[in-house]
Amino acid sequence: MGLDNIEHVVLILSGKGGVGKSSVTLQLALSLTQQGHNVGILDIDLTGPSIPRLLNLEDKKVTQAPGGWLPVKVHDARDGESQPSNGHQTLHSAAPAKRGSLHALSLAFLLPSRSSAVIWRGPKKTAMIRQFVADVLWPPNTDYLLIDTPPGTSDEHIAIVEELHKLAVDTQPDPAMNGNTLSLDIGVRPKLSGAVVVTTPQAISTADVRKELNFCVKTQVPVLGVIENMAGYICPCCGEISNVFSKGGGEVMARESNVPFLGSVPIDTGFVALVEGVKEEQNAVNGAPTTNGNNSEKSTELVERYRECGLCPIFAKFATTVDQKVRGTTSG
Fold it and tell me: If we measure between CA atoms, which residue out of 269, 264, 199 comes closest to residue 234?
């Protein structure tokens, strides 16, 4: 089965488009890897995949291997004990920080070009989701698979939840029969640990996201928490936060729906510059040495550059909370 190497699966959901599910997915994944977890990102927004663009890996293609597809590697794991390749230590630490690996898979990696349109009806979308679940060879010891979903509660959502719930029903030898017969054991190793729901503060957004919370109730998906994205704008000059889209709507919605509220995330142009700047830096490194004095790996890898982003501490907190909730849920 394609998810045999996955320990926990977390859905990133929202009933509203444009609330930043993909950026939340990416930053949560980067934060989890910075905490030492091996992470995979599965992008099932089939008609509008964003993860390859955010990762600046649009030119990558999925490799076909015996037994299934190999996801695209974003960065390797690191034990934190080795020194930088040029022999110099960074100004911030004596050795590179420990981190987990990150891999990603998206339909965009299978398309001929970034401008190719996906014009599919429901059955073909469902078949693609099933193939993503069954035929992808994620690396061994992957702690988290974060699934970036499209907005709404449509074919993709129904298909992924249905497939993940199937994995919670496992066949195990019956100890009473000395292993001679099989009995169904519900939830032996639950693959679907829960969902993180993303909203923006406006009432028009929270109204749609309430429907997503209702979807989670009806499909028996635990809600790990609500993130209120775009809650204010950080001025790049003075650091003052202005509430462009109001603030607090996500927290009120979470409280009224009796689900956890993880916190608010302001708009930070530094994150956009970071994502866009990685590719520019990579191109510069290919043609000339970097000018910041650091080694090329340090300067081009998104996971390392993200440590300097103003949103990094916020998502580090989210990652810790999600990890505690997931492990608390599944350990009992």
Answer: 269
CB 198, CB 322: distance < 8 Å:
no
Task: Tell me the residue range of the domain where 140 lies.
Answer: 6-79+97-169+183-326
The first and second tokens of residue 77, run together, are 């794991």
Residue 171 pLDDT exceeds 50:
no
Tally of domains in the chain: 1
* Angle of CA points 200, 203, 205, to nearest 5°: 45
In a domain, 1, yes or no: no
Residue 296's pLDDT is what? 43
pTM exceeds 0.70 for this model: yes
Is position 100 annotated in a ligand binding site?
no
Match 């970071």 to its residue by tokens.
Answer: 274
Flag whether pLDDT at 89 surpasses 70: no
Q: Which long-range contacts (CB under 8 A, 24 or more apart) does 81-84 make?
A: 84/294, 84/295, 84/297, 84/298
Q: What is the dihedral of CA 261, 262, 266, 271, to 10 degrees?
A: -150
Residue 22 marked ligand-binding: yes
Report whether 15 belongs to an annotated binding site.
Answer: yes
Residue 114 lies in a domain: yes
Taking residues 127-155, report their average pLDDT: 95
18 is in an annotated binding site: yes
Tokens describing residue 152 = 């709404």
- What is d(CA 117, CA 164) in angstroms, rounded to the nearest whole number? 27
Burial state string for 43-63 with b = 16 or more CB within 10 A and e = fewer than 16: bbbbeebbbbbbbbbbebebe
In this predicted structure, what is the pLDDT of residue 133? 94
Q: Is 17 annotated as a binding residue?
A: yes
CATH number for the domain harbouring residue 158: 3.40.50.300
Would the annotation count 98 as a binding residue? no
Residue 241 pLDDT: 79
Cα(275)–Cα(306) distance, integer angstroms = 9
332 domain-assigned: no
